[in-house]
């Protein structure tokens, strides 16, 4: 029993020590040491969402760097990534999103990026956005993907023009609406915009309370919260939903499933998640990390994302994709979007959404 | 260098010593115990450890009881816990109402179809849970088979929306998701009951309900206890069904823990909630065990 207690204590100490790791590397700019035009060597560890590590994106990079050993791992949220890294997981490149990266930034888990080392920097969308920089203006990540949220509606079932997030809350569509609900930000931000709040990401507690009350009072307006794009497609296909929020790639998938839907950028502006690659504070192969970021930010790399249904973040990628994909992939959609960022009252957002989802 | 000696084998025919007999079961048990320790006790230890930790964005951490006090005193979580209890209990009762007669048919009435039916029941459980849930959505949906049938029969003029995306649909899906685990233990305990007892009860004037209540139920109580352990406890932690068919009001504790850990990265609070649910499950199991002993006539 005593030995068990000792073992558990040792485990506790080890976990605590691991949890304290990685604190003193932050705020340091990662400087490349070699010629970034030459193929990288050694080992490169990449920790990202599955979508950013698909063979279509990674195989061309591997071909360019045949002597580089690339090791990949995936996560489902930046919170999960932060928990893993704080427990000793090592990586060179980590994918972060503007609305989720706070734990990684605050715990000093990221080196700063040198924009001069990013070949396509001048052609990138969001390059002047505050959300990709720290409080000292140093660059945290290179934005590589985004998903502007607008309104999707079934053109067979709705014959009047739709141009606002307010339409989601129109009593005419009661019980036939779905809003993204796999985390708190999209439903609350979309509803706030519908209520006339101009900058939902910077809402104060009173405004958040108003949005929460509105969503609770009008719960019957929604058929359900959708959790993934395939689920949204299924909701349209089965006739449960005729109008929802969502991005243009989701609208394309729904159309391909046989439902006549249209995607519109609402007059309040779209909201968009913005994700990209950052360099870990513990990164060992800085040059290879920059090589990967440069490849994914290049017109060629962005064209691959564009063909996959994402909005591209490099304007020069447009000529490289088929005309059919340009409707969705065009970076111009990002010019008027409101980037999703970590709210100063994030805990209140989390709590508000729990309350919205509870009860009858 | 000495001359190698040939090992001598002596067959004495004596029984193993008392010590050897005592140690033998432990030797057999050592490997399963070690596996259990690695796969169960260590993760459990980590869960308990995290549940007593706090952590903020800066990575500061330390010991705290607040994960437990916050969970237990928060009216929001109490409300969700009550809703979860309501959904899980109704789903469990529904499964027993369907499962006991089904087990009875399998055990006593199916004849040569007993094995194929049993196999079908097991195969039904092999269906991917997501596919099963989506199949229910196709049945219960606005343009689903049930609404279509009722409309075709002229029984309704407009589709019934209340069939899907609410607590009702969560209960329906959960009631069928674990049916195999409800039926099999009850069926197994019924197989051990001599069907002649039913004839004897009938000869003594007992009706079917009295026979069920006074003869069958006490004898299959241990099977029901196993079914409760296998099904009722997991029902509390399910989060797929409420997410996919619960709409805007079918949230359960499993969803709160999943969101807490996966979306908000609050592993400590999620661990504390899971630990409390585990304690509640242990208490419930103890209670069910005692009840099954009383019903089963054990002392």
Can you tell me about this structure?
The complex is a heterodimer of chains A (360) and B (299). Chain A has helices spanning 2-19, 55-64, 78-86, 102-106, 185-194, 205-217, 229-237, 248-256, 286-297, 299-307, 323-329, 346-357, and strands spanning 29-30, 42-48, 68-74, 93-97, 110-113, 142-154, 177-180, 222-226, 243-247, 261-264, 271-280, 338-339. Chain A is α/β, with parallel strands linked by helices and 360 residues long. Chain A folds into 2 domains: 2-140 and 274-326, Periplasmic binding protein-like II (D-Maltodextrin-Binding Protein, domain 2); 147-270 and 343-357, 3-Layer(aba) Sandwich (D-Maltodextrin-Binding Protein, domain 2). In chain A, strands 1, 2, 3, 4, 5, 6, 7, 8, 9, 10, 11 and 12 form a 12-stranded mixed β-sheet that branches. In chain A, helix 6 packs parallel to helix 12 (346-357) and helix 7 (229-237) packs across helix 8 (248-256). The radius of gyration of chain A is 22 Å and the shape is globular. Chain A starts with a helix and ends with a helix. The relative contact order of chain A is 0.18. The longest helix of chain B has 35 residues, at 75-109. The model of chain B has no long low-confidence stretch (mean pLDDT 88). Chain B starts with 17 loop residues before the first helix and ends with a helix. With 299 residues, chain B is an all-alpha fold. Chain B has a two-stranded antiparallel sheet with strand order 1-2. In chain B, helix 3 packs across helix 7 (167-177), helix 8 (179-191) packs antiparallel against helix 10 (208-237) and helix 10 (208-237) packs antiparallel against helix 13. Helix content of chain B is 73%, strand content 2%. At the A-B interface, helix 1, helix 3, helix 4, strand 8 and helix 12 of A face helix 1, helix 3, helix 5 and helix 12 of B.
